[in-house]
Q: What sequence folds into this?
């Protein structure tokens, strides 16, 4: 009896520690706002092809893919032991990015995972202030993921990711540190999942020039997913940018003396404004070896649509299948009438070889 009481107290202590840690982070960041521009764009990309198919943001999604933990560290568990994931995306305008990740689980210690994501902006023309071409230059960003997740109870898992990020533009360099913290809940029926996630809380350490380093805009997300009991469908909803309050932003005055305001409230009712904080996903899961997924990102649809024609901007879709010992995933996300992005992922477990 004394041993059982000790274990219960120890478990409750872990829960309280995780809860206090997360609340403290939220309190310190509650005043942060996301503007029309931000540092290190690579931090806002989703490596996983499957998550991209579901709208690009999923705070409560689980699966045997270590790239999911790169988005929410609380998604890492024993099912990812010795799993390896690789991905590549020919993005937009000759921009390419890819990632690699690996996870390892210890029954006593928890789940450790790591990865690297690289974004190449391609080659660009270098000119002087008069527009005279001086040559070419390159720009790129790289983020390293080092994460850990631990089961707090049979229902709750908490995770933390440490992310050094490096950026290079021509001869200018910058680097910073971002942190992700998440809590994942799994219902006893195994079909319902909920998640609370704080992404990209951190700061620029070294700026591109002599300007002062800036804070990174954190993103608080809450989401859930549920699979139907008697039908092969899973639905998910994630609310994002919950710290920003309003999505209004302003592009500051530039060298031409122009200030551009981009209010989210222009020509939008309250229902439309609410939708811009949400991301929706649905999956068809006829077997463990095959799936088809689709997603809707209303904010992307609203901000990147053309007034003359909306079409499928903001929608995404994808599929995945297992062949031999490998899981292949593909997704396509429509960002604008003129462009879509394609995402490819492959996952396997080293334990099977």
A:
């Amino acid at each position: 009896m004394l041993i059982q009481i000790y274990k219960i107290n120890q478990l409750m202590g872990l829960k309280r520690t995780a809860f206090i840690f997360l609340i403290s982070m939220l309190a310190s960041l509650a005043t942060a706002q996301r503007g029309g521009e931000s540092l290190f764009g690579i931090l806002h990309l989703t490596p996983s092809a499957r998550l991209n198919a579901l709208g690009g943001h999923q705070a409560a999604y689980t699966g045997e893919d270590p790239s999911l933990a790169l988005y929410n560290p609380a998604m890492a568990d024993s099912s990812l032991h010795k799993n390896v994931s690789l991905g590549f995306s020919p993005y937009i305008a000759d921009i390419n990015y890819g990632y690699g990740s690996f996870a390892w689980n210890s029954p006593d210690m928890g789940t450790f995972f790591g990865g690297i994501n690289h974004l190449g902006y391609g080659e660009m023309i270098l000119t002087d202030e008069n527009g005279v071409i001086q040559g070419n230059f390159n720009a790129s960003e790289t983020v390293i993921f080092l994460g850990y997740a631990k089961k707090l109870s049979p229902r709750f898992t908490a995770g933390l990711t440490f992310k050094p990020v490096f950026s290079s533009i021509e001869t200018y360099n910058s680097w910073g540190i971002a942190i992700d913290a998440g809590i994942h809940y799994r219902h006893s029926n195994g079909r319902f999942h909920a998640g609370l996630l704080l992404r990209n809380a951190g700061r620029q350490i070294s700026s591109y020039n002599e300007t002062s380093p800036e804070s990174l805009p954190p993103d608080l997300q809450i989401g859930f997913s549920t699979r139907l009991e008697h039908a092969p469908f899973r639905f998910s909803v994630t609310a994002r940018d919950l710290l920003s309050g309003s999505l209004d932003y302003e592009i500051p005055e530039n060298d031409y003396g122009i200030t551009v305001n981009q209010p989210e409230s222009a020509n939008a009712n309250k229902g439309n404004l609410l939708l811009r904080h949400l991301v929706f996903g649905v999956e068809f899961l006829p077997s463990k070896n095959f799936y088809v997924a689709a997603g809707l990102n209303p904010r992307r649809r609203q901000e990147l649509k053309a007034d003359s024609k909306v079409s499928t901007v903001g929608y995404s879709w994808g599929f995945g299948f297992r062949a031999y010992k490998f899981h292949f995933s593909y997704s396509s996300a429509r960002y604008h009438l003129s462009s879509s992005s394609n995402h490819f992922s492959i996952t396997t477990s080293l334990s099977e070889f």
The CA atoms of residues 225 and 236 lie 4 Å apart. Helices lie at 2-29, 49-53, 66-69, 270-275, 298-304. The domain at 2-352 is CATH 2.40.160.40 (Porin).
